[in-house]
Amino acid sequence: MTEGVRGAAGAAAIVLAAGAGTRMKSKRPKVAHEVLGRPLVRWVVEAAREAGVERVVAVVGHQREQVEPLVADVEVVVQHERKGTADAVAAAAEALAGFEGSVAVLSGDCPLITAGTIEALVAAREEGGCACVVLTMEMADPFGYGRIIRGADGGVERIVEQKDATPEEAAVAECNSGFYCFDAKALFEGLAQVGNDNAQGEFYLTDVLEICRRAGGKVAALRAADPAECLGVNSRAQLAEAQALMRDRINGRHLAAGVTLYDPATTWIGPDVKLAADVAVLPNTMLMGATSVGEDSVVGPNSRLTDTRVGAGCTVDETVAVQAVLEDGATAGPRAYLRPGAHLMAGAKAGTHVEIKKSTIGPGSKVPHLSYIGDATIGRGVNIGAGSITCNYDGHAKHATVVGDGAFVGSDTMMVAPVSIGEGAVVAAASCITRDVSADALAVARARQTEIEGWAAKRRKVSAGE
Ligand code: UD1
Ligand code: CA
């Protein structure tokens, strides 16, 4: 949000991730739900990291066995009972005992927060000498958020939760984002004085602001330049909203870097995906995980690539690929399924209705139509005819198929593994290959054609009653 502010080095961050998230109506903890493949809490931890925060403490509790692995790289403390946000922050008190300076408190359910905003919050507190700075935003529909109640002098007096608000207070548009930067001492002293005499019987972190002010501390608000950063995910509808906002943010970055997106609204690109300039992504496409695409490649429409590396000048049309590699100039689809370990070398082709698993297709080799290739090593310049498959599974174990450079495998060939076809060999169409084929040989493994002269004409006469 704010460019050019100094990093938040020296500050600590507490990420709240212990809540149940009942409004999600899910068997999974809320903060484990994903936006573009990354869990909500992870987005917040990454933003804190990027801001340069020195120590990150995650507060876990509800279904913590599912949340802890998501924050394994930071300090973790446990809130044993869900007694409210103040109680959650208090769970980090021991871990941060003796810590002095800025403590940013970050909601683990707000994935759109940026490093720049965390830095701005820390800078605002330190430059203003404040006990607390709260990030606020104007919401067209503020329902559900805490409202910022300002005093006659315009300063922040207190925050009132939706369920405790009078109609006049509920009419206030300025909302609490759930992001704060506190002075460590003011925070932990204030927490000890928070009560739970409110509509929800919870210990509200928001009460600490009023406590700080009463104790003579300065409490200020920093208005978020972009309220979207503060979107809290409490329901599936808000999760969908966050997905769309994040999609737009990421797509905007790729567009600015020289990537063509035909239809940004139906293009979903994960945060760790790398696209070179002059890549074109066609509609209805998802690029997820550690996927990367090299320059001049065209991906889509209707494609989903996960953890897949695509080189330069490739065409990937209506394709699903998972942990696959396409070297420069390779083509896939329309309607190819590249499963883990599929490796198309330079200029290789996996064509229409072709499934490839754990196999290398050598440079310039083609598997153009209706094939299944599994556990195979196919050399350079090989042609695999339409409908040919590797019979790699005998019901107990998987077996390998090897096809040598320059071999020609006719249509509808069954390669019953383990089996190898030598370099330059030709396999006649409709063969069932059960034994190794020598280099440069012709293998024919099918029933010989027979012919009965006049048979069809005779049948026609019989059915005509002649
Ligand atoms: C909170 C704020 C509200 C603000 C809103 C912004 C309070 C009392 N209210 O409300 O003013 O407008 O965020 O999104 O703070 N959590 C715990 N332990 C608990 C309770 C919550 O760790 O006992 C965590 C949750 O996992 C979540 C965060 O704290 O990540 C916020 O809790 P949530 O229940 O979503 O608070 P809101 O009702 O949204
Ligand atoms: Ca919330």
Describe it for me?
- By secondary structure, the protein is of the alpha/beta class.
- The chain has 2 domains: 12-230, Spore Coat Polysaccharide Biosynthesis Protein SpsA, Chain A, CATH 3.90.550.10; 259-443, UDP N-Acetylglucosamine Acyltransferase, domain 1 (3 Solenoid).
- The chain is built from 9 helices and 41 strands.
- A hairpin with a 5-residue loop joins strand 8 (147-150) and strand 9.
- Helix 6 crosses helix 7 (207-214).
- The longest helix has 21 residues, at 236-256.
- The termini are far apart.
- The model is unreliable at 1-5 (pLDDT under 50).
- The protein binds uridine-diphosphate-N-acetylglucosamine and calcium ion (CA).
- Residues 16-19, 31, 59, 79, 82-85, 87-88, 107-109, 145-146, 159, 161, 175-178, 204-206, 232, 234 line the site of uridine-diphosphate-N-acetylglucosamine.
- Residues 107, 109, 232, 234 line the site of calcium ion (CA).
